Amino acid sequence: MGGPTATNQQASIGVSLLLVASQHHLATRDLRRLMAFLQDDHRELDIHLQLIEPGQNPELLELHKLVAMPALVKLSPAPRQVFTGITMLSQVQSWLPRWGQMERLNSLAMPVIPSPAEDGRDSPRALELEDQLLVLRQENEALIDRLQFQERQLRMVAHDLRTPMTTTSLALQSFKRGHIGNEELLDILGRRLHEMEQLSNDLLEVGSTRWEALFNPQRLSLSQVCADVLLELEKMWSGRNLVIQTDIPSDIPDVFADSRRMRQVLLNLLENAFKFTPDGGQVKLGLMHRTSQWVQVSICDNGPGIPVDEQERIFQDQVRLSQTSWKTAGFGVGLSVCRRVVEVHTGKIWVVSEPGEGSCFYFTVPVWRNQKLPGH
């Protein structure tokens, strides 16, 4: 009778663990490995793991004196232990066999208190230093991310400032040639100055606001924005014998988008199309009500085209095409800006191209369906 009883007791030894970690922590490789190890079959141990979100349970942080996150707390068998830092997995692997031994000895009224000297890594001073190192590492990573974010913002705002300056210059040239009158010139200059003022405000907010928050979606006639952009870029296509084809149905629905940002995407894509299309070539601009939820915009040219292996890369930051970089500036920041603008509107952007046959850029914009405006 004694033998089987002892076996049953060994098989039913319970280990209660509390893992205090945010969703961000749980996505890391170290935490995934730790959880996979704890979920394995450890024969005589029955491990019960409870996940706790620190932000929703601040009282537990105080109860267990937790300073660094993530942390693993062993509640039972006694005594309570806390594991933190990047070596949590190795610490648990080291202690796991001893937890079963400690529980069996406790059942015989022979409590065992783990000795810090048994493993130097588990001494209070070593754990304290490890916690401090973890906090410093996390703060350093956060600072690096912040600096990289601000660098990207400055680069993009600088690129954005170039667009109104270019269109202003084109408008002045058109005025000198008699293509536009005083009233139209003043209207263009007024709108461009207003845009530069908004961009300067964005620049001031770069240090404290995420770029994705610097947009104001509203009900918008995309066909009107397309017409305005084509007029602003007239200098780039007039006198070059380019064929400009537009396919904009009269019943195209309004979209839910930021007017300034949508104009920015169209300016970037059309400017590239005109820039890379040879004289006598063709540029197409089309809008299509693709589904009940999306309007698809297409801008096609018959320029040099884009190699297949570079068609994904061109939407990344500061990527330019190798076969065109020596001819003209472009594809450095503009397409990454387009991607960010489209994605923040929950749309998608992609390119279909064959070298020597031109390129077609597509992006989608959500249809206006009485969405709530920001702040309402």
From TrEMBL:
Catalytic activity line of the entry? ATP + protein L-histidine = ADP + protein N-phospho-L-histidine
Q: Does the keyword Kinase apply?
A: yes
**Keywords, alphabetical:** Coiled coil, Kinase, Phosphoprotein, Transferase, Two-component regulatory system
Enzyme class per UniProt: transferase
Would you say which domain of life the source belongs to? Bacteria
Q: Is Coiled coil included in the keywords of this UniProt record?
A: yes
A GO BP term here is: rhythmic process
The Histidine kinase domain covers which part of the protein? Answer: 156-369
Source species: Candidatus Synechococcus spongiarum
Q: What is this protein called?
A: histidine kinase
Q: What is its EC number?
A: 2.7.13.3
Q: Which residues form a coiled coil?
A: 126-153
